[in-house]
Structures are given as structure tokens and as C-alpha cells.
Amino acid sequence: MFLPKCQSGSGHKIWLELKDCLALATPLAGAQLAQAATAFVDTVMMGLLGGSVLAAGGLGATLFQILVIISTNVISAVSPLVASAYGAGQQTTVGKILRQGFWLVAGLALPLGLLLWYAAPLLRMLGQDPAIIAIALPYIRAVVWGLPALLGFAVLRNLVSALSDPRPIIVITLAGTLCNVLGNYLLMFGKFGLPKLGLAGIGWASAISLWGMFAALMLYLFSQPRYRPYHLLGQLWPDLDLLGELLQIGLPIGVLAAVETGMFALTTVLMGQIGAVPLAAHQIVLQTASITFMVPLGISFATTIRVGQQLGQQNRRGARRAGVVGIAISALFMSLTALLVWLFPAPIIGLYVDLGNPANADLVQLARQLLVIAAVFQIADGVQVSAAGALRGLPDTRVPLLIGLLAYWGVGLSSSYWLGIRLGWGGVGLWWGLALGLLMAAVVLTLRFLTIPILAAKSSS
User: Taking the CB of residue 205, how many other CB atoms lie within 10 A of it?
Assistant: First the structure.
């Protein structure tokens, strides 16, 4: 096992940490971008089947993605535990964590799968059109078969990343993206003798590609000699203590993801109450911010791993340095994207709507205003996600959950409502509220990481 040793000179140590963080973050961010591209392509191809199908597919995909975001964040507890065990040289513990991660998948996949399979009553309760639900249900019931593979892939992704081997993730994710696009085409339109499944075909293509990605990463793990010392398939029965530790770390992460997702979802609802133009402008800017966010999200994964590895080596200064470097990289990247958004709003808006069409004039003007706010929003968003990643590496997840509740709902949602609805600032007010919530999260989470006592890593043997 190779881990870089600290050498003399703080500047040299920072440079080494910068290289190590970027070596992890680059493929992880690339994988996140590939997944975002998959969702974008799916949406475009749904549109080829008609407006009602696009609405139904968007409804089903949104429900599926919300549950995936929450569950994969719970599973992300695998990463800091494996990173710490790897740093401490506890090879058998790594295998134990992997196996308990699969038990966690089993515990999540069944109830979530049943919830998706019988989603119609839930969607009706949320006020969705019964005709749209009827179109969406075959898609949901197709894609749900890929849920166990998606969660299993998340466990394996966290494992190999924490073991400083992220390159297969981006290769497999890119291959899965291409297979998903091809599968969409074949199963949507019934090419080469395959059944013409329409919207359900997109769901089946996603499920098949997810199982292919999971199988490919499993084959990689068991074909590489470097993974044999970890005894990945050792004693398969549950280890309740270790499983409990995964849940203790992962549940607050999952709830925090739900809280943050809820902030954006409710802001979208408020935007829809203002009018169609503000909602459209909101979607343009939010989609743009979501794409750029994939990079700091990948950096946050790398930061969790680097902090955990240093903690496992009992290198407390190194753990602190790893977190600071990860936060700084995210801040720098998002500052650059913010500058681009600030200077070149027209080309960005032009990706979504025709700038020359007079009917879009109000939409373009509002989207320009929101992009200015998004410049501030993006910097805060990048810092807060990396600061949260650094804290996970310690692992510290309960207090960040409380900070998130206060920042996202106490500040973000309340100020969005006050500025946008009560003061009549409209979409601009709603977005300033989002920016304020994320800014508070960024400041408080960063201060917590800088001031929290870093304790010696706990063995999970």
C-alpha cells in the first residue's frame, strides 16, 4: 500500500496535498459530469416522444433521482471509514466495510423499490395529473429494477475512491452513459427487432446500463491483484456494530441531502407561483448551476477521502491541511465559473432559448439577472459542499446536519419567501434567498472544520 509521506516544508506539503487531491478529484468530477450528461440526454430523448411524455418522464425521473440522492448519500458513509482504515493499514477492515455496505444496500433497495413501484398514490396525493401518472408509471417500474445495481455501484465507487484508485470509475461511467444513450434509441423506437417501448424503454435502458456498470466494477475489483489482500468476499453475515457505525455516519448525510434538495424543490414551487416566465428562467439558471456543481461535488468526495486517509495515519495536521486544500480548490474553480457566468450570460442563455425571438425577451432579461446572483451562489455552493466533505472525513456528520437545517431552511427558504414573495422581488428575491442560505452554510461549515478538534481515528476491526 502506498501513501505519500509528509516531507519538510509547509509549502511543499501543501503542494503534495494539492496534487493528491486533484488526482482523486479529476476522475470523480468527470464521473459526476457524465452522470449529469446522462440525465440531460434522457430528458432530450423523452422530448422526442412528445410534450406529455416529456412531462411524465420528468416527473418519474425527478422522483427516482430524489430517492437516489438521499440513499447514495447514506451509502457514502463507506468512503470515510474505508479511507481511515486504508490510512491505518487495516486491510481486513476494508473488506468488512464493503460487505456491510452491501447489507446497507439490501436494507435500502427493497423499501425504496416498493415505494417507487407503488408510486401512483403518492403522486396523486401530491396533486399530479392522473393522466401524466399513468404515462410515467411504466417508466418508473422499469428503471426501479436498476436501483439495486445503482446503490451497489455507489458502494464500490466509494471503496475504490477511498483506496486512491478512482480511474476505473470515470471509464465505467462514461461507458455506461454511452450504453444508456444507445439503449434509449433501441428500446424507445424498437430498432433491430427489439420491442418498441417508448418512455418505458428509457427506463429499461437505464436499468440495463446500471447493472452493466455494477458488473464491470465488480469484475475490475476481482481481477486486480492489489485488491486480494482486502478479502472483499470474506464472512458475509452482518456485523451489527459496523453496520450501525455506517448508519450513524450515513443517516445524517442522507437527511442533509434531503434537506438541501427540499430547499431547491420548494423554491421551484414558489417560483411557479410567481409565473411561467420566472419558472423558466429559474430552470435555465438552476440547470446551469447544477452542471458546474458537479466539479466541486467530485472535489468534496476527494476531500473526504484525503482527510480520512490522513486521519487513519494519525496525521492530524495532514487531515486539517487536506480539508483546507479541498475547500480552496472548490472555491477557486467556482470563482472562475462565476466569472464566466458574470461576463458571458448571453451564450449560456442561448443554449436553452432563442435569444432573437421577441417572445423570449422577458425570459432572457430575468435569466440574465438570475445569472448574476448565481455567480455569488456558485462560490458559496462550492465551498459548502467541500467543507461538508472535509467534515465527513473526520467523520463529523451530525452537527453539519443541524447547520444545514439552519442554513438551508432557517435562512435560505425563509429569506427566499420573504424577499421573493412578501417584499415582491419575485424570482430575483428567491435566488438571493438561496444564495444567503448557501453562504451561511459555507461560512459555518468551514469554521467548524477549522476549529473542531481532530481526534485519532477509531479502529473498526
Answer: 26
Quickly list DSSP for 180-230. Answer: HHHHHHHHHHTGGG----THHHHHHHHHHHHHHHHHHHHHHHHH-GGGGGG
Identify which of 173, 126, 183, 150 has the alpha carbon closest to the alpha carbon of residue 27: 173
- Kindly write down the DSSP assignment for every residue of 237-288, as one continuous string: S--HHHHHHHHHHHHHHHHHHHHHHHHHHHHHHHHHHH-HHHHHHHHHHHHH
Question: How far is residue 461's CA from residue 452's CA, in Å, rounded to a whole number?
Answer: 25
Q: Is the pLDDT of residue 7 over 60?
A: no
pLDDT band at 9 (very low <50, low <70, confident <90, very high): low
Condensed to tens digits (0 to 9), the pLDDT of residues 303-328 reads 999 999 999 999 999 999 999 999 99
208-245 pLDDT, tens digit per residue, is 999 999 999 999 999 999 999 988 887 788 899 999 99
Residue extents of the structural domains in the chain: 22-238, 242-455
- The answer to whether the beta carbons of residues 313 and 87 sit under 8 Å apart is yes
Distance CA 311, CA 393 (A): 8
Across the range 326-334, mean pLDDT stands at: 97
Which residue, among 64, 220, 71, 78, has the nearest Cα to 146 in the 3D structure? 64
Q: Are 446 and 327 in contact (CB under 8 A)?
A: yes
Looking up cell 438552476 gives: 286
Which of 221, 390, 207, 174 minimizes the C-alpha distance to 300?
Answer: 390
> Euclidean distance between the first and final Cα of the chain, in Å?
18
User: Are the C-beta atoms of residues 430 and 271 closer than 8 Å to each other?
Assistant: yes
- 10 exposed, middle or buried (CB, 10 Å; 0-12, 13-18, 19+)? exposed
List, as own/partner pairs, every contact residues 273-276 make where C-beta atoms lie below 8 angstroms and the sequence separation is at least 24, other chains included.
Answer: 273/421, 274/420, 274/421, 274/426, 274/427, 274/430
Contact 376, 312 (CB under 8 A): no
Instruction: Say how far apart CA 172 and CA 177 lie, in whole Å.
Output: 9
